[in-house]
Design brief:
With 497 residues, this protein is an alpha+beta fold. Helix 3 packs across helix 8, helix 9 crosses helix 10 and helix 10 runs antiparallel to helix 13. The relative contact order is 0.12.
């Protein structure tokens, strides 16, 4: 994006009428419009953080803005987006059309210099959440895009993995970004679609955006919260309009030659059971998760299993060291079989991070486990924060493990998920890792029943013998090791700051 401060550009100053009142106005090189009148004190509008666009008719310039609802009418300064935002127009009546042309040229030139997206591919999931994505788009998103003069192509998903197909076949040159109006599932499909292209290395550089209209909405919450922005559809939309970008880690989840790419999380045990099995109570609305959480804690399950990991610096004391020969036997399974033939790599797309884990100091923790939760971003949903220390592109995963915990303490932990403070409990192991391997086992006391492995809201493996047919439809098998490896900052995502 262009440098937003052009110190060589002089400040424009003029006596005008703003919103019907006489005022002395100035427009600085940094895009800040300031004005003062006899009775209102100084006011200001920052085009970068509050401006959408403008119209010019004769001597009148109308600036379309999106400002903080609580921003004082007589104040200047502070962040407009710390709370809810509202649409507001400011009308400048210039003394002459020549001055109106000069000021509008400066205003429009500054907005154009911000490198904001002009053309977007928007993918809507009409089936997600409470099936209100189309209504959300029409009433909250579309008007802001129109005010910002953003052109778009709209596509609705019609079946599972449709978004992946769209991303896999789209013409990249037509768009400045891809926006998902949905929960986190469509975003994950888009990432997988881009990475399965022959030109994946170019495709994955296309900026991605997410506007919450589903059940989870963890990525949208994480992005807005990290920028100190209020969580809302309109703020998520405006963050895309503003066009700031940040890099995002992409996680390769692999089992032998099967691969899946994730940007949010993987769960096994308690959290996965609640997320997936509570679907049968969807008629309860959002209360289904609370209800089923309580039910699962009362009838608590534990699972046999084994985890291995390469700890991040500062976390080397967790777990037990393991034999280097045993742990490294499959460390390079992401590459050796697939990357030996360059033509095969070009055909199949991205094959995982180009790093070797040979020689790394792997450590391990044995079960039984109540829950294993691996996170790429802080929030899993708009009210669940399992990984408060997670960063978008630090090259690490944040792992949460619960092995032993009284039911009363576990209930207390679940109630503290909304602010992330639960991880301070002595019953919680919280660590950062460079790579992670999960070997899931059967439920304690039930040798024919396994658990569920859930990645970004979708079941990728199921270990219950009662669901043999479902197991064949799942992406991976339950039991053999599943490995997670991070490619630091591989993707790009729109962010408020």
């Amino acid at each position: 994006m262009a440098d937003k401060t052009e110190t060589s550009v002089p400040t424009l100053t003029e006596r005008v009428r703003i919103d019907g009142a006489p005022a002395k106005a100035s427009l600085a090189a940094d895009g800040t419009l300031r004005w003062s009148s006899g009775e209102g004190g100084e006011r200001c509008l920052a085009l970068e953080s509050e401006g959408l666009g403008l119209d010019v008719v004769g001597r009148r310039i109308t600036i379309r803005a999106f400002v903080g609802a609580l921003k004082g009418l007589s104040s200047c300064g502070g962040r407009g987006g710390a709370g809810k935002r509202v649409r507001r127009d400011h009308v400048l009546e210039m003394p002459t059309e020549e001055l109106a042309s000069r000021w509008s040229e400066r205003l429009r030139g500054y907005i154009d210099s911000l490198g904001r997206p002009k053309r977007l591919l928007i993918i809507i999931n009409p089936f997600g959440g409470n099936k209100s994505a189309r209504k959300i788009f029409d009433t909250e998103i579309k008007p802001l895009l129109a005010d910002a003069e953003v052109l778009y192509t709209l596509k609705e998903t019609k079946y599972q993995l449709h978004a992946q197909e769209i991303a896999n076949t789209m013409d990249l040159i037509k768009y400045d970004g891809i926006v998902c109006v949905s929960g986190d599932g469509v975003l994950v499909e888009v990432v997988n679609g881009l990475l399965h292209r022959e030109d994946w290395d170019t495709a994955i550089q296309v900026p991605l955006g997410v506007i919450p209209a589903g059940t989870g909405n963890g990525m949208a919450k994480s992005l807005l919260d990290a920028a100190g922005e209020f969580y809302s559809v309109s703020n998520a939309t405006f963050s895309i309009i503003r066009g700031y970008r940040r890099t995002l880690d992409v996680v390769t989840i692999s089992q032998e030659k099967t691969k899946f790419f994730s940007v949010l999380m993987l769960t096994w045990g308690l959290v996965a059971d609640i997320d997936i099995e509570s679907e049968k109570y969807r008629w309860m609305g959002s209360a289904r998760l609370d209800f089923y959480s309580l039910l699962r804690i009362i009838n608590l399950r534990k699972y046999h299993g084994h985890v291995q990991f390469v700890p991040a610096p500062g976390y080397e004391a967790y777990g037990e060291p393991i034999n280097q020969t045993n742990c490294c036997s499959s460390n390079t399974m992401l590459h050796k079989d697939d990357q030996g033939d360059e033509a095969n790599v070009r055909t199949c797309g991205y094959q995982g991070p180009a790093i070797s884990l040979d020689g790394c100091d792997w450590r391990s923790i044995d079960g039984p486990f109540i829950s294993v939760w691996i996170n790429n971003v802080p929030w899993a949903a708009e009210d669940i924060m399992p990984a408060p220390n997670a960063k978008f592109s630090d090259g690490y995963l944040d792992v949460v493990i619960i092995k032993e915990c009284p039911k009363s303490a576990l209930l207390s932990l679940m109630l503290k998920m909304s602010d992330g403070s639960y991880w301070k409990s002595p019953h919680v192991v919280y660590l950062k890792v460079k790579a992670f391997r999960l070997e899931p086992g059967k439920r304690v006391g039930h040798p024919t029943k396994g658990g569920i492995i859930d990645s970004d809201g979708e079941v990728i493996a199921r270990g219950d013998d009662l669901h043999c047919e479902d197991q064949q439809q799942n992406l991976m098998a339950y039991g053999p090791p599943i490995q997670m490896t991070v490619d630091q900052g591989l993707a790009t995502i729109f962010s408020s700051r």
